[in-house]
Fold this sequence. Notes:
Number of helices of chain B: 1
Largest sheet of chain C: 7 strands, mixed
CATH topology of the domain at 159-264 and 397-459 in chain C: FAD/NAD(P)-binding domain
CATH class of the domain at 159-264 and 397-459 in chain C: Alpha Beta
Number of helices of chain C: 23
Strand order of the largest sheet of chain B: 3-4-5-6
Oligomer: heterotrimer
Radius of gyration of chain C: 38 Å
CATH class of chain B: Alpha Beta
Low-confidence stretches of chain B: 86-92
Order of helices and strands of chain B: EEEHEEE
Shape of chain C: elongated
Helix content of chain B: under 10%
Number of domains of chain B: 1
Distance between the termini of chain C: 97 Å
Helix content of chain C: 10-25%
Amino acid sequence: MNNPIAQSPFAHRLSDTRPAVSSGVNITDLSALPRTGFKGRGTSDWLASQVATMPAAPNRAAFQGDGAAIAWLGGQEYLALPDPEGNSTFCASLTQAWEKDRTSGAQGIGFPLPREDSHSWLWITGTDVPVMMAKICGVDLRPDVFAEENMAQTVVARIGAILLRRDRDGEFGLYMLSDFASGHYLWDVLQDAAAEYDGGFV
Amino acid sequence: MKLMACPLNGPRNISEFICHGEFHNQPVPENTSDKDWADYVWLADNAAGVVREWWCHTPTNYWFIAERNTMTDEILRTYPSDDLGQSKETRS
Amino acid sequence: MTQITRTGALIDSAKPITFTFEGKRYSGVQGDTIASALAANGQWVLSRSFKYHRPRGILTMAGQDANTLVQIGNEVSVFADRHPISEGLVVKAQNVNGSLEKDRDFFMNRMGRFMPVGFYYRTFYKPKGIWEKIWEPLIRAKAGLGTLDINAPEDGYHDKAYGWYDVVVVGAGPAGLAAALEAAKSGGSVLLVDENPQLGGAASYARGMDAQNLIDQVEATDNIKIWTDAVCNGWFADNWLAVIQGNRLHKIRARQLVLATGLIEQPAQFRNNDLPGIMQGSAAQRLIKTYGVTPGQTAVVLAGNDDAYGVALDLVDAGVSVTVCELRKEAKGPLQARVQTVGLTIHDGCCINEALPAPGHKHVRGVTIAELDDAGAATGKQRMLPCDLVCMSVGYTPTYQLAVQAGGKVGYNDETAMFSITGHNADVGLAGSMDGRYALERCVEHGAAMGARAAARLSEADAPEAPDKCATSPNYPWPIFPHPKGKDFVDFDEDLQIKDIKNAVAEGYRELELVKRFSTVGMGPSQGRHAALPTARLVAKHSDRTVAEVGVTTSRPPFTTEKIATLAGRKFTPMRRTPMHAQHEAAGAEWLLAGNWQRPAYYGRGSVQRIIAAEVNNARTNVGMIDVSTLGGLDVRGPDAAEFLNRMYTFAYAKLPIGKTRYLLMTNEAGTVIDDGVACRIAEDYFYISATTTGVDNIYRNMLWWNTQWQLDVDIANVTAAFAGVNLAGPNARKVLDKLTDDIATDAEDFPYLAYREGDVAGIPARAFRVGFIGELGYEIHVPARNGAALWDAIAEAGAEFGIRPFGLEAQRVMRLEKGHVIVGQDTDGMTTPEELDMTWAVAKKKPFFVGKRSLELRNKTLGDRKLVGFALDVMPKAGLEEGNLVIKGNEIAGFVTSICQSPSVGKVIGLAYAARSDSGTGAKITLRASDGSLHQATICSPHFYDPDNKRQEM
């Protein structure tokens, strides 16, 4: 029952990774971390009652004090991501809070979405990330255009993806959430695109 | 590659969108004659000039309205369908 | 003629490089192109012309003409005047029968009179059949440039990249440099693109032009990115540019674009104007300045403008003896005065009447010149001038291609005899000589103004004034001198002569687009870069119109040749895997694609038919399992969930009890069946529904579209990838499930057919429901995707004692066909109604509305004359019957086979087909037409071939 896919859709490829070196593109698999989403009528108000900071506009994220993110996908749809380097119970707390409210009969508080199972989660960091992404994504991600907390819901190498600017140790960084079932394909695409910069999965 | 300004996602390559055809107020089926219903379902206006169309940004599945000149392929305006100002009670 | 020491801007004489051309070794130097290195070695013939196989050589040294196309390895049609040499490079000539030196097809040169313009259209079609039998094979052997080995491996890694710039400047001549500098002052990002290896444009070779100061400034500006050896090959909507550099296609979005693409020098038309040794003045200058190649010893410069004298002086400086043949009667350019002080002979008011070929037409050996009369035609006595080089400086066209792609229209000014461009996209500016600013200072000033305009438009500021166009142009208005014996080429690519254009007009093809199609002018590799101007002039003259009225033909991308590999780039073929992929692989799955999902077709190797039959038998008699993770899954939640399903699907869901499932059938607004699935009612306000694997994305999008209008209080979430699913089916399925769950009671009473239950299965929270599926007792178990593999392993382990084995999509299809289940998209088409499928049981009559209801009422008034029927044959005919085979009734097509298989469970060939409604009764016979044309009788029967009373699935 100890199945690697339970951790990440990239799990079976992790032996292909290279040790982290200073390079233009480092891709870190965060798929084993918790994540969740909420959607539907009343989600905005309910979430606002749960978290410290809400995003200012659709396609923006708000980072909480502990580094966790609430990303506004548009309308009444949000994504919740913990800080990858923290030990956050952010998502679990939200899920529990929603279930508690729901059990006590609350209506119009949106619905949770199984984002851990629908989406893989990568952190792509390094100075060459914008130019690397320009080979597989039609959205302008140059650092001065695509600022911190900015999001793009777009197509990467012909599959849907959610991109969120999140720098790492002062270096340019992107969260990329994409189709869980396309992990194997995405791995090959990213390794290939990063090779030019001596980058890849770490 | 044309650009299209998505009301939710901003300007994007038009390959991220699909066009769902002309916007029509759906007639109330039971109040519509067979002929008018057939016209509504099977015949397109194909107007030359500025038309209102349904478009969808596929990565987000976000639907909106675009006003496009079919003669020049110029996209004049895009906006959420809520802004159409029509009554939502098409059905009861 | 080998030149020992050469000095040129791009070459390094200290670094020799050896390569071969047509099997012979040549020595060039670092920085040489193939053509410059060959010229330095005295090899001037580079190719043979397309139709007449005439020897051809350097014309432009700018990659603008087909004369220099050669083959390198498996890459055809490489510009020899642009491609650099490298050690050991093997270069071959194209379009040669025999050798480049002795081409067996050169006799075609004398056949010209048998191939008048448009001869293709009248020669090859009579008598009937002759085209296929004789002409096509013959022409195919003769036509085309180069030879391709289609089995050769792909040559290198090609890919694409997007790019975004505030301002893109195409062309790094003086105007482009100035434009880039000015644009950069905005602080925005600027990209400067030039197809040449060096910056400077004409200033890098033309006499008296220096752009070094501008180059230095540009190179020192941080926000200007410089791409040389990069060609902008197309303009597309919203300033979307295709820029090719090396093996990468850049797809660039420019907020503002400045085109400073300069001018293309034009040849003059006289007899044998295509001989090697006859070239543009600019080509001679490029050879001298850029590559240190002296293009001849004795030159005649044909002068129609003052630039000719820069060419003459450059030639003199290179040690060439020069005679000028001046078309103008009174030329007073400043350079001309200098030339006279150098003591050159200038023949004023004269044209070249004919160029004289050396033996085999391999080079020019002289020209005859004649005085021009007042009408501009050759007259009087001719004089012969021996020479081995002719330089033509008679005029230019603007490099208008990108501007035209950007919506520009090409006009013609009779005063200046020059094309002009107007009406292009407002976010595109034209700069420098391509927009009528020829003098260097004016050109630079205009470039700067257009750069400033681009910058101003970024911030919506007012653009500065631009300097006026020059009043005169370097174009001689009529450098066309027809010769009675012809071979006065207008289009070198297609070997078209003056008379061909004249005759095309005489045949009635007055419009330029028609002239083009009739004569093929401008359709060769150089795409009319040199033919457009003389053609427009000739058509105007012979149709008594102005050149402006005639215009030029439309210019479309690509600007110059591009490789298919460039367009293909790196291939992206998304593929999805279920969480159980590794398990399938370990079990020996043979894969097939369902949408973009990889699914096991069957497991193991050997006779496919036998494997599938074994998988079917095990599921029917014992227990089987199949990965159904790819099935679409949607969570429909909210107070209006049931109402939403009622509107989207044909059946009724408002009264579906919690813990129950119901079939879903969806029609579109026209009443056509477009999807099916199962709805599970989890709660009053919560349905979990399935959709077809390939349909779910569209169905989901479609649902959102409808609810954008209905505004029901419901939320729809596509959770397809989030759930893995296993269908556990067969008489022993209950025993297997029993071992895996304590939460879910499995006996028929507690978990009956069509029930939905939740609970842990193998310790994983699961959604489980009983549906028909393959027609056996079965459970569909859905768990979060990350637990899919664990679920699969647990079921396999629990089932081991019963001999469980997985079955693939093929066995599933067989079993579902045995039960008569239709596959939407395979057994239905764009017209199928529920009635044609005998599925009116799934259409709720009393509902006030569902999508498609009104249309079905209408369509049911006059039923179509076809019906989906089940049919059977005792044995498969030898010819084989396949999906898509026709159903024949009398002499008519009555329908077609949609599904067919050899049924292991029924022991017959069974299938579904559209047939005539009148033949749809049980026991009727229909005729199927196999792919080889043979006809076979089949008997109509109930499509519920197996266990028609559904006893087995309801156990």
